[in-house]
Write a structure and sequence with these properties.
Elements: H1 26-45, E1 55-65, E2 71-79, E3 86-93, E4 100-105, H2 109-120, E5 124-127, H3 146-152, H4 161-176, E6 185-195, H5 197-208, E7 214-218, E8 228-231, H6 254-265
Parallel strand pairs: 4-5, 4-6, 6-7
Antiparallel strand pairs: 1-2, 2-3, 3-5, 7-8
Helix pairs in contact: 1-6, 3-4, 4-5, 5-6
Amino acid sequence: MLGESYSRSELPPLLEFLDGRKVESLGEWEERREEIRSLLIKYFVGSFPAKTPLITGAKVTSEKVHEDGSTRRRIRVTLATPNRVAFEMALWLPDGKGPFPLLLTAPRFYQRYWGEDAVERGYAVCLFPGVDSHHREADYPGYDSVWQTIRKEYPRATWTEISTKGWLASRCIDYLLGDQSVAEIDAEKIAIIGFSRYGKQAMVAGAFDERISCVVARSPGSPESSQPAITANCPASSSCPTRGSVKATRRASWGSCLAQASTAAITTRGCFPLYAARVHS
């Protein structure tokens, strides 16, 4: 039963329901994924709003052409929350015509380098408001704090800072795939990347948003988890650069447990190498 209490000291076996049944079919795996999500909500990330708010408005507040030919915009998105809360996201579009594959990341300075690499290779890059509350990015004011305003809109939700920001990444996807978007995005090629807490944030987003088809989480668990966690599904070839799963330490820590549980909940619908071609066609 979803939400059933878990009383064992170790992590639950991946392909076993809480009642002891084995997962023996794809349909049962979908059911098991929902059970894993319920465990994540109960023990790690808290609950989300019962209903996802619609986007009531979006406005481009700044736009400039970068020296590399990409177009870089700031967009203010308003949600249909009780008090119509708005947040800012940054969008970088490569020179050329879409639809573009999409990479999301929080604009921490060392993560923006990944964004620069991605836009050079033909990706649209979304910098969503997921900067950690202990960090500050002078060029991205409010990206570290708007999550608190969002949480106040939903007092019954028990979500954490990390899960709130993962949820905000999904609201950026809502905008980018919606009628008000200024970009043409390939809905089948959406990736999210992050380091440390931002890696956990990325994994939570991927676990609860099936539109995200690739998650790259660098050191998302305990300090011993030094390998990148890449989750993607490639039915075609074992040599696919995004094929594999999280390498997480067995050390009992919040981070390592979350990394393993989140990975189990992530569904992937295909893979696409981030560093494949420099020009998207």
